[in-house]
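Many introductory courses stop at the sequence. We go one step further.
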Amino acid sequence: MTSFAWGVATDVGRVRHTNHDSLVARLGLFAVADRMGGHTGGEIAADIAVQVLEAQRAIVSTQYLLEAVHAMNAAIVARAEAEPSLTGMGTTLCVLSLVVSGEREKLALANVGDSRIYVYAGDELQQLTEDHSLVAQLVRDGALSASEAERHPQRNVLTRALGIDHDVSVDAWEVLPFTGDRFVLCSDGLSNELSDDQIAAVLRRLADPQEAATELVRLANENGGRDNITVVVVDIVGDARADGGAPTITKQRVPDLAGFETVVADLHMDRPPSAQVAPEPAAHAIREVREPRPPIFTVRLIFFLFAFVLVLLIALGAVVWIGRRTYYVALDDANQVVIYQGRPGGVLWIDPTKAEVTDLTRDEIPSALLPTLEKGHDVSSLSAGRRYVENLREEIVRVQAAGTTSSTTIGTTTLAPPIAAAPSATAAATTSR
């Protein structure tokens, strides 16, 4: 008997505010539904799909699974018709279920839209489902390469979804389960963020399915997280292999007898790829084409802004410190001797300010010191400026004292009476006699 171990993880992502993905994970039945982004009621469509699926007691065959998917579609359409505000709602779906085919247990796969089922076996990852999207169809028809599809502006346009019309074409396959196989069901929130190689690396590295599912969601968020992300990892831990055959994954398509094939326009393959006509998507099965806006504030941006503001504040502080840390003594517009705080002429927008106005005026300053004061004499502090002003006062007193002494000396010499002439030698001789 086939037995399973599984792990699930789902996350809102880094852009959207609510998680509209839905999932089923129970013994033998696993599914992921992803609402059509941008359409009213998309999350309701996804919920209806999983509710109808979970209501099935047992999926006994692939055809029974297909009937269940059509029942989901009918339930979504009926809800939209009952509530006109929900018109146009839809969802993708991928399902993996254990069924009995003949005498052998098999895995039945079904999908509508671009939610995917992968299998990791023999150290290789293989996508089992086919995306029902515009670019995927172009790739399958050879009109686009895989790398071109990744950058195509219409890569979000779906050609099929549940709930869009009364009829829907469902893809279905059967594969044989082998011990050691690992299946991954996911919404496009994973497949749009991680390459097949990145997904395979996680599945190779982590043996526990829950750890693998959690790590895949974490990496999808790390790579952008632009949509809701849902991952179900299912391990086959035992199988009912009767023939001892090699565990090679071979999928067999099962026709959808209740559905219909979507009509795709001719691509005119004789034209070069750039000139080929794209297939016409279903008129109302279009996922939101606009790319979700990245978050305005990221950790890196916040850190950059913080560092920028910090550097700016340091620079402003340095300018203020340079502009206000020194003093100088100079004459103001009123020819008064003033102690200024700042630098002569100012620094950028920081003008010097008057720290102290003295009672000295220009007329009192010795002429030899005027050029220095007119230019401004730098001092290191207010007290140093005061000492310089006191030195000016002393110099004024000294100069004034020196001027007074000089004037007194000159006046005495001029006004002194003339000295009498010395007597002649003859007269002296006569007198002595």
